[in-house]
Amino acid sequence: MSQTIVIAIIILMFIFDLIVTILNYQHRKQPIPQNVRDVYDQEKYDKWLNYSMETMRFGLITKTFSTLLLIILLLSGAFGWLERLANSWFENPILRNLAFLGVYYLFNMLLGLPFDYYATFVLEEKFGFNKSTRKTFFLDELKNLLLVGVLGGGLVAGLQVPFMMYADRQWLFILTAWIAIAIIMVILFTLNKLFVKLFNKLTPLPEGALRTKIEALAASVGFKVSAISVMDASRRSTKLNAFFSGLGRTREVVLYDTLVEKMSEDEIVSVLAHELGHAVHKDVPKILLQQILMIGAYLALFGLVAGNNALAQAFGLSGAHFGFSLLLFSILISPLDLLLDIPLNFLSRKAEYAADAFSAELADKAAIQGALRILAQENLANLNPHPLYVLLHYSHPPLSERLAAIAQH
Q1: Is 322 exposed, middle or buried (0-12, 13-18, 19+ CB in 10 A)?
Q2: pTM surpassing 0.70?
Q3: Which structural domain, as residue segments, surrounds residue 178?
Q4: For this structure, is 356 an active site residue?
């Protein structure tokens, strides 16, 4: 019975995601809102249509493959075989668990590598987005593998220790794990720039008008800029972005080199004013707090799955298994994730409106509108997404709604 429920959840979530994706794709035929009709010329619009069609088709292929693979692994008893393999290598339960998850992750990574390669060097390159070399691509994959091995492995081992210690006092496990994960999340956030440097080269922005404007912008709301760097994002993609890193009143600014190339100084300043709006409104700490609270709820639910012998045995394992429970939990939690994403995305979109308004007031209304239009053009944004897709998946409002809100400010 438990096996049937798990498989049913996987299939139902796949079907639901498929329906929403198709609805969103078909919505492209609806009239484009008046205030964004000039964002794309006909050639650019045709390019967007082709890009959206191919990315949707490729996404469906990838999703179908991963879903079928997961179902086959679950029904074939592959996880039971993997448990026995890991047990034959190690006596220590933590090392056994890490070996179990490590083999599974490596297997998935290798199977997913051709899809990632195709997405980067065929799909993204076809539409002019990819600038990454094959050397950079494979080095990034290797770095990701090492990071997952070190950080992910450390986190899993750190969770399993209190789980084993408080096997008969589950509330202590939940509390201990919650505090530990919260601390780790805060540390990882503060070390964000370190991870950026692992994958990218940062060059100080030269002295000049743009640097002066950025420093004056930050100073006008009581922030100090300790560094302004340009990131070599063009090595991988033509897409644009900029962000602040750090906490408190001292921040570092990182600009994509593609952003510096495509936007005017006033538009760049307006984008950073938007990011400063998030800082002034304390949106990042709020999001971090939301995630920490969610982790607490997830840990409570995970405790129910991790201690369930029957659930593990239904898929060929000898009994309750910490590593398998993590995998199973990620499946069982997907319907809850879907429901939670609705209010969380709503709050995120609300924060984006507020940051846009902050930028329009602090910098220039026309500049932030122009910057948003350029971002949409360069990233081939969907100008007319389906409302249901927006409700479920959009953390940022659609462009037409953002421009309308700025105009009314």
Answers
A1: buried
A2: yes
A3: 1-409
A4: yes
